[in-house]
Structure formats: C-alpha cells, structure tokens
C-alpha cells in the first residue's frame, strides 16, 4: 500500500555541482528516498549537477524518472539518456508547463536563478488558484534561510499575504517535508478568480 497520496513529484534544483558536499549528497538521497516510496521523479532532464544526482539516486533504487528538457539544451553534454522517460519541449516555458502537468507536487532543492524562477512561478500559480498542489522547500543545510527571511520581510511590509507565504512548505529532511506535503490543504480559489462566483 502506498504511503503517500502523490504518484509523482517534480524536483527543482541546480544543474551545477556546487561546492558543498552535503548538498550534493542530499540530492542523491532525495532521489533514492522518493524511489523507495514509489514516487516518480520529474526533473529538468540534465545529467549534470544536482539534477543528475537526483536522477541517479532514484534510478539506482529502481525508481521511475522522467526528464523534461527544452530542445536547445538537448545536447549530449547535458541531456540524461538513461531515464525512464525523456520529454523534449520547445522552450523553457513549455518545460515548466509539462513538469507541472506530470507532477502531483513540487520540491525545491538548492539551486541558482533557474531553480528560484521555477519555484516562484509555481508558487505564483498556486497563489492565483491555477493549481492546488503542494510546494515544498527542503532546507536541511540552511541554504534557504535567507530567502525565507526575505519572505517574512515581504509579509511584514504588507507586500505578501501571510496565507500566501503559508503555501511554502519547509522542512529540514525529506521525510518531514513529504509528510507536510501529504497533509497540505490548498487555499480556497480567490473570489475574483472563481468564474462561478456571483
């Protein structure tokens, strides 16, 4: 019997190795953990960096891994060719949309501009009621401490509603994060977005 209600999760993370061995190792462990829980990994399709480690961890545990990569990045130096599924999109926006469609939720591991862009776009979609899926940040190394502090500053400045910040689920280990995602209750769709509202 499956422990979690989701069948697949998208993982956003860097295509670089970084210089923290703990972060690098954790990316592998996340992939392995998800595979062990029979959760398919959906990711950006690269064999490089943390992306490659997530895929490697899942594949070595017999898990299913789907990569989604835009055509202009599909070179032999970048693309992971040993996946369960590999989907090519026209562009970056198409990649994010396909990852959204294939996934029951989203997890952010450490990354750079691309990872943050993916995280904030999917959070914005949730804020607008365009999806009702859980979004988590795995913060075991404290990598996202400053970002979370900035979000609190946004709330205190009246530029981000507290209930919207609560869309961000945060935990220090993958098991705790999945439990939070399992029990996540989405916000009601905003009245101005509900076409059936009178």
Which labels suit this protein?
198 residues; alpha/beta; Rossmann fold; 7 helices; 7 strands; 16% strand; LOG_fam; Cytokinin riboside 5'-monophosphate phosphoribohydrolase; cytokinin biosynthesis; hydrolase; EC 3.2.2.n1
Commentary on this structure:
The chain is built from seven helices and seven strands, in the order βαβαββαβαβααβα. It has 198 residues and is an alpha/beta fold. The protein has one domain (8-185): Rossmann fold (3-Layer(aba) Sandwich). A seven-stranded parallel sheet has the order 4-3-2-1-5-6-7, sandwiched between helices. Helix 1 (21-36) packs parallel to helix 2. It is globular and about 45 Å long. The chain starts with 7 loop residues before the first strand and ends in a 16-residue tail after the last helix.
CA-CA gap between termini: 43 Å
| Helical content class | 25-40%
Structural class: alpha/beta
Secondary structure tally, helices: 7
Mean pLDDT: 93
Produce the secondary structure layout:
Blueprint: E1 8-12, H1 21-36, E2 40-43, H2 49-60, E3 65-70, E4 85-89, H3 92-102, E5 106-108, H4 113-127, E6 135-138, H5 145-156, H6 162-165, E7 168-171, H7 174-182
Parallel strand pairs: 1-2, 1-5, 2-3, 3-4, 5-6, 6-7
Helix pairs in contact: 1-2
